[in-house]
Design goal:
By secondary structure, this protein is mainly α. The protein has 21 helices and two strands. The chain folds into three domains: about 140 residues, Serine Threonine Protein Phosphatase 5, Tetratricopeptide repeat, CATH 1.25.40; about 80 residues, no CATH class; about 140 residues, no CATH class. About 65% of the residues lie in helices and about 5% in strands. A two-stranded antiparallel sheet has the order 1-2. It starts with 6 loop residues before the first helix and ends with a helix.
Length: about 400
């Protein structure tokens, strides 16, 4: 028995309590003791994905596929397809590894057919772009992904004292990215010093607003409950970590879903899947849920995932910067228009064609757009850099 007790059961307890960092710690330690612990593999991938640690999630998922004697876990296929939808090489190798290495795979025939299709897709990409270009874009093999070092790998090889010394240096560096790395790592280090450092970070007005919000979220992921103070705009706010208000999340807050639905509805209208009358019947209201008949039509529209992720990133950045002083999302049509303006700027900015027409322009939407941009002041510089990178990869 581990010095920490039943680590798998503890991990599930923390996972259900939305203490994802503490859960990840438990599941990782459980795997150090038994690499064939299927519950720990599943929980480790899930906890990382819920914290949006995509890099480490992929690494763990790759190791899972390469591990012998595990029972077949159909749930993991969903994660693999989500993480590697842009990497047919890794996904094909992952599928084959699961069929070969894991026991009781009742979907082997279907999975192997899928792997063959993915190999063909990868070969087409190689013929079109060349293997080196694809590697430069991050299209690595499964073995290469599995060999990467995760944050928990590093935490497992250092003493707690050494880790806290590193974190202290990061937090005193003045570098926002370094501070954020330390904050997000502390949530996976269950020790009273982690809570102390995170509470201090929430109150440190020298830190970027995003860092302070992430420190508050890290406290919750660490398993801390009760009240915590966060300083923003020269004021102190008390947040109940049992039920944070406003919503405290690493994803897009649910308050923005109606605006995102209207954004997609407008794009579907511009592609002819929704009539102008159908669009107006919903967009002119502040109804929270899109009617089922419109959901099916929106799902038919071609709305590239990367375009949607751009606006999600902008929402999260502004929300983190100002939390808890975030606006109440009313006038969802105007918020949707703001998102469409920013989406168009991204598409045009990277050198692609915007084929959807001109988003609705009005003063309130422009104000919302400016608020969103204030969370990412280097947005247009980043878009320009993305365009240059795309052009260089094309040769």
């Amino acid at each position: 028995m581990s010095q920490y007790g039943d680590l798998g059961a503890m991990g599930r307890h923390y996972l259900q309590a939305e203490s994802y960092g503490a859960a990840a710690f438990c599941f990782y330690r459980a795997l150090l003791e038994d690499q064939e612990n299927a519950n720990a593999w599943n929980g480790l991938v899930l906890s990382h994905s819920l914290m949006r640690k995509e890099h480490d999630s992929q690494t763990i998922l790759a190791r899972f596929a390469l591990q012998d004697k595990l029972p077949y876990d159909r749930d993991m296929i969903t994660f693999a397809m989500m993480f590697w939808q842009q990497n047919p090489l890794a996904l094909s190798e992952w599928v084959r590894s699961v069929v070969t290495n894991h026991e009781g795979c009742q979907d082997s025939e279907t999975l192997l057919e899928m792997a063959d299709d993915l190999v063909r897709s990868y070969q087409e990409l190689v013929e079109r772009h060349g293997e080196e270009t694809l590697r430069a874009q991050g299209m690595l093999s499964l073995a290469e992904i599995a060999a990467r070092r995760t944050e928990l790998d590093w935490l497992a090889t250092e003493s707690f004292d050494a880790i806290y010394e590193h974190v202290r240096q990061w937090m005193e560096s003045g570098d926002t990215d370094a501070v954020l790395t330390g904050v997000r790592m502390l949530c996976m280090l269950p020790d009273p010093r982690s809570e102390k450092l995170l509470r201090r970070a929430c109150r440190n007005e020298e830190f970027d607003g995003k860092v302070r919000t992430q420190a508050l979220l890290a406290l919750r992921w660490l398993g801390v409950r009760g009240n915590a103070k966060i300083y923003k705009m020269g004021e102190s706010f008390v947040i109940d970590l049992d039920d944070p208000k406003p919503e405290l999340t690493v994803s897009v807050p649910t308050a923005y879903k109606p605006a995102l639905d209207r954004m997609k509805l407008w794009l579907a209208k511009q592609q002819g899947f929704v009539t102008p009358e159908e669009y107006e019947s919903f967009a002119a209201t502040d109804e929270a849920e899109l009617p089922e008949e419109l959901v099916s039509k929106v799902n038919e529209a071609d709305i590239p995932g990367v375009y949607q992720e751009v606006v999600h990133m902008l929402i999260r950045a502004a929300y983190d910067k100002y939390y808890p002083l975030v606006p109440t999302v009313r006038e969802t049509r105007q918020w949707a228009n703001a998102l469409l303006m920013l989406m168009k700027d991204y598409v045009v900015g990277i050198g692609e064609s915007w084929t959807y027409g001109e988003p609705e322009q009005e003063e309130t939407a422009v104000r919302h757009r400016n608020w969103l941009l204030s969370g990412t002041p280097d947005y247009y510089e980043s878009v320009a850099a993305a365009k240059q990178l795309r052009e260089s990869l094309r040769g």
